[in-house]
Amino acid sequence: MNEEERQLSGLAQQVGSLTRDGKVDWQETDAEDTFLLRLHQGSVLVGSLNADGEPPYELRLQDPEGREVARVVSSKSYAGGSEEELMNRILEDVYYLARGSGLGTARVVTNVLDELKEIRGPEPRF
To answer: Which of 19, 30, 60, 29 is nearest to 42 (CA)?
Structure first.
């Protein structure tokens, strides 16, 4: 793993943690299966390279003007050296966190569960 990949790995871990904690929100983009985190100093995009939700995953860093300044792509498989496997797992984690945030998965699940509770009615008390 070169220095740029190490930096992007650290960035991916930080945005993953902040996403998990609900401190940043991702948006869907016009590109299939790609999600955007817009910040003041730049943007992070993560997506499935083949737009199928499967590896390889890609993380791109853009400057405030939208120019791509760095990019890392995971391997298609998880075989390989420990650094390569770690990068794959980090990118996969960030991809699924960004997807859930961008699509509002938690909100939809909560709303559907609430609706199902309404349909079921009150629980009997004994």
So the answer is: 60
